[in-house]
Amino acid sequence: MLNVIKMFMIMFTICACSTLVGREEVVQHKLDETVRQIYMYKKGLFQGRATAFILTYSMRTYIITNRHVCERADLLMLGPVPLTTMIVSYDTDLCAIPTIPTTPSLLLADLMVPNGTKVYSLGYGGGVYKQKTGTIKGAERTLGYVGDSTSINLKIIPGDSGSPVVNEEGKVLGVIAERSLNGPDTAYMVSHTNLKSFLDFIVKVGL
Hints:
By secondary structure, the chain is an alpha+beta fold. It has helices spanning about 1-35, 65-70, 190-205; strands spanning about 35-40, 45-55, 60-65, 75-80, 80-85, 85-90, 95-100, 120-125, 130-140, 150-155, 165, 170-180, 185-190. It has a domain at about 35-105 and about 200-205: Thrombin, subunit H. It has a 7-stranded antiparallel sheet with strand order 5-4-1-2-3-7-6. Strands 8-9-10-13-12-11 form a 6-stranded antiparallel beta barrel.
């Protein structure tokens, strides 16, 4: 009987691990297809790199990144493609670039997840394409670009700005905006609520 119980526990553990790996592979695949590195230029001079992602909302498709990324440039390059039409939010650190409908693209999550929930992000910090995992810490208010934000346990470096933060279904919970000054392993993301409000405004005015 004990051997049967041990065998069941081993099988359950294997199944649980396989499910977890399977979910992470699905998230990785979605991010691989939709996250891009962008290059910033101003008056023809290279200003740096950042991250952006493709998002479909209300049957429209946008390239999403940070306001501070767009404000550093008069031209963004997505590979060989120039991006010049930038819609910036003056309430929070968001920038949207309208683009032609494309598949695949990410979708906005229906609801924000509770504190402590595992989340995923993928960005080009340091020019290196890398997926990271972290956990939601909670809602906070910060000064400057970010506005109302959500802090997460996630280490980011320059170049990760504009990275999506997604749940285990690969749906967007927020956008990486800045590092915390209180510790290297905490980052701030523009919250799900603010991202949705920004997109609703864009759609309402027909952009």
